[in-house]
Amino acid sequence: MIVFNILTLFPDSFTNLKETGLLGKAFANKIFNMNVINIRDYSSLSANSVDDKPFSGGAGMVLRPDIISNAIEKNFSQSYIDSCIKICFSAKGRKLSQKYLEEESSSNNFILLNGRYEGIDQRVIDFYDFDEISVSDVILNGGEVASQLFIESFMRLQPGVLNNEKTHLQESFSEDLLEYSQYTRPNPWIAPDKSTIDVPSVLTSGHHADIETWKRENALKNTQKNRPDLFKKYLKKNKNE
Description:
This protein has two domains: 2-155, Alpha/beta knot (3-Layer(aba) Sandwich); 172-237, Trp Operon Repressor, Chain A (Orthogonal Bundle), CATH 1.10.1270. The strands form three sheets. It has a five-stranded parallel sheet with strand order 2-1-6-5-8, sandwiched between helices. It is elongated, with a radius of gyration of 22 Å. By secondary structure, it is α/β, with parallel strands linked by helices. The chain has helices spanning 21-28, 65-75, 78-83, 98-103, 122-127, 144-155, 208-226, 228-237; strands spanning 2-8, 32-38, 51-52, 62-63, 85-95, 109-114, 119-120, 131-134, 189-190, 196-197.
């Protein structure tokens, strides 16, 4: 079983993950479990305070290293700490990628540290050798949304989670390409302005080779338009295409 140990100030944030959709089914089938740990429970300060002013000055508060360390030491053995994957979600971390998820897809034990306020004291991150990960070039209020994104993205790669286990092989980022555009019924669709919009005819032609060619070309087109950085990376790896 895959176990996500989640250190957070907002434990209720993770309830829906185990109750809805494909992850809810995976949780019920004991494919994964979540051990949600409230950092505040490990504070001995007044009113269970967990933060303090940054020495560097500026606005915001910083989560204290002693309280986070206390939460870790009280819940995990040293051998577990040393062997598991430890991630701290941070805007200054390296960007999460599909490649990273695939490389770690055989891992079973995680400690996910979720910051709040102005961040987490760097000393505890360095001491436990947390891998600092950013999920996007945007600023969030805390790590909980990033942590949920990581769990869902990671679990999609696990056997027994997706209804069709080959689905993720054709999705965006699987080959440094975005996914091809999707279409369904009705065909044609009458838009609100009364115009008639058809599905690309090749998709209803029944010619599987032509459909595969269209999917490839459309994926390249979408990547070039929306993620030129990925497109350049793809071209560099596939110079003969």
